[in-house]
Design brief:
The protein is built from 15 helices and 15 strands. By secondary structure, the chain is α+β, with helices and mostly antiparallel strands. The strands form three sheets. Strands 5, 8, 9, 10, 11, 12, 13, 14 and 15 form a nine-stranded mixed β-sheet that branches. A four-stranded antiparallel β-sheet has the order 4-3-7-6, with no helix packed on it. A two-stranded antiparallel ribbon has the order 1-2. Helix 4 packs across helix 5 and helix 5 runs antiparallel to helix 6. The termini are far apart.
């Protein structure tokens, strides 16, 4: 378009008259029909060959699922063909149900589950209360899917969620990056749970107080850091402690920049880095930023150094693999691990040979001596990790218990799934079997998967979003018993009427007995 004096001129390439547009054909003839040229803009075109090939690569248990309505609605929909286990899924026919995968991860965190089921308050929109109600439904259901409608209703009522772009009125557009959305969602919900479970004085004393666990979420996810800012001009230092609920990964450059050697082969070869090294570098990274210096009394260039002071009981790690460069790093490191296994060069931290086929380790050992932090992979062949003793002198052992991934089907915004290692306690309650097994939760579709598939993120259609590493002795540090939300004696006690006018209108009531 050519603009002259605020007037735009465009050539008439189609040879039509002013305000003349052809009708868009909804259907085409068999065999001789042509593809609708406007269907691509409307989002109704058939998938291309590349998208079709990408969809074929995705296993059936990872593909996005949809609810098919009939004349009877969902009453004749067979959910059992998608779930042959005893663990229920979550339906997707309600707005903002993209967070079903993260809700499933929260449910299988036993200390968090027990704390939410014990929590009770008088707030109108409390996410902790709604999570407790949802967890009760998941406990009582065997394989029938549940709905998180009450939780999502309370979630939609929060203006902060709308401001952060976490609410969608209709279906999610194809251009929406669900990996970024679910990472913002987890950060916001964890902060809200900490706020909802803070100890506070009850507004009314009509009901007896309950013994709640207000600091469980804080103890589970909170990490304490010490940030030291050093001015580059005068050298003055200023330290400030702060807390965070999540860790965010930062990735080094994917390839070597060896321009001095002049070797093209070395410059194009990816650098082999372990996941633990990348995670440790993300925690203790140094930054250069502009900050206000009190000594210079103006804004100066400063160096920011962080040091870890307190480790959480559950490591909630945002992978930050949103762009193509970060996803390429995961794919390259996965390929390097497979190549080293074939050549027999892979070795553990103590020289033992590794048989692990993934760049993502199932166990981490974190040790801290003063300001020095050491993170090592523990996915070795030295026996099961669950049988090793927990020792603070040798470090704290963390095991991978869940991960949330984005499935890119190439046709829509994709879907979010959760890999969860269900512990033996849940199997004893549901199936009366003492075992632990990995499952993939794809909304209302639940399927068991192998451990290799749960930690494999070297493919192009599965992108990691959030990782959860829990301490090996996590259940021993918390009270996992679930107490009643309300005292049943409230139903059998006579509550005095505050308004005498209401006492004249309403007839006298009979106090119930305890067996009634």
């Amino acid at each position: 378009m050519k603009v002259v004096d605020f007037v735009g001129y465009a050539p008439n390439v189609h040879g039509r008259r002013r305000n003349q547009m052809p009708y868009v054909e909804q259907t085409t003839r068999r065999g001789k029909g042509k593809q609708n040229p406007y269907s691509s803009a409307l989002g109704r075109s058939s998938s291309t060959s590349r998208e079709t090939e990408l969809l074929k690569e995705i296993p059936k248990c990872y593909r996005p699922v949809k609810l098919r309505y009939s004349r009877l609605g969902l009453s004749d929909f067979d959910f059992k063909q998608y779930n042959h286990t005893s663990f229920p899924g979550l339906e997707i026919n309600i707005p903002n149900a993209y967070c079903n995968s993260m809700l499933q991860v929260f449910y299988f965190l036993e200390p968090l589950k027990a704390a939410m089921q014990t929590h009770f308050c008088e707030k109108n929109c409390c996410l902790a209360c709604e999570l407790g109600f949802l967890f009760n439904m998941l406990d009582s259901s065997k394989c029938e899917p549940c709905q998180a409608s009450n939780f999502l209703r309370a979630f939609r009522s929060m203006p902060e969620a709308q401001a952060m772009g976490l609410l969608f009125k209709k279906d999610i557009d194809a251009g929406t990056q669900l990996s970024q959305v679910i990472q913002r969602w987890s950060r916001f919900v964890l902060q809200q749970l900490v706020h909802d479970t803070e100890p506070r004085q009850p507004e009314s004393m009509q009901f007896p107080p309950l013994q709640q666990r207000p600091l469980v979420v804080t103890k589970l996810f909170t990490s304490t850091f010490l940030a030291v800012t050093t001015c580059k001009e005068c050298g003055s230092e200023e330290s400030k402690p702060y807390k965070t609920l999540q860790w965010s990964m930062t990735y080094p450059r994917a390839r070597i920049d060896d321009t001095s050697s002049g070797s093209s082969s070395s410059s194009s070869r990816p650098v082999a880095r372990s996941f633990s090294a990348v995670l440790c570098g993300s925690i203790l990274r140094e930054q250069t930023a502009m900050s206000f210096c009190k000594t210079c009394d103006k804004i100066q260039s400063s160096r920011l150094v962080r040091s870890l002071r307190h480790m959480p009981h559950v490591l909630c790690i945002n992978c930050q693999a949103d762009s193509t460069m970060e996803q390429e790093i995961w794919r390259q490191q996965q390929e390097l691990v497979l190549e080293s296994l074939k050549s027999g060069e892979a070795s553990g931290p103590h020289g033992q040979q590794l048989l692990w086929k993934s760049w993502l380790p199932t166990s981490l050992r974190v040790s801290q001596r003063g300001e020095e932090l050491s993170v090592q992979d523990c996915s070795t062949i030295d026996g099961p990790q669950d049988q090793r003793p927990q020792s603070l002198k040798t470090g704290i052992y963390y095991d991978l218990m869940a991960s949330v991934a984005h499935i890119n089907d190439g046709q829509s915004a994709g879907a979010l799934i959760a890999h969860v290692k269900v512990s033996a306690n849940y199997h004893l309650k549901k199936e009366n079997v003492n075992q632990s097994q990995w499952y993939v939760f794809n909304d209302f579709a639940v399927n068991p998967v192998a451990q290799d598939s749960a930690v494999d993120f070297g493919c192009s259609w599965k992108v990691p979003c959030v990782l959860f590493y829990a301490r090996r002795d996590l259940n021993q540090l918390y009270d996992l018993s679930v107490r009643q939300r309300q005292d049943p004696n409230v139903l059998v006690s006579a509550i005095p009427r505050a308004n005498h006018v209401l006492a004249q209108v309403v007839p006298p009531v009979r106090v119930l007995q305890i067996d009634e």
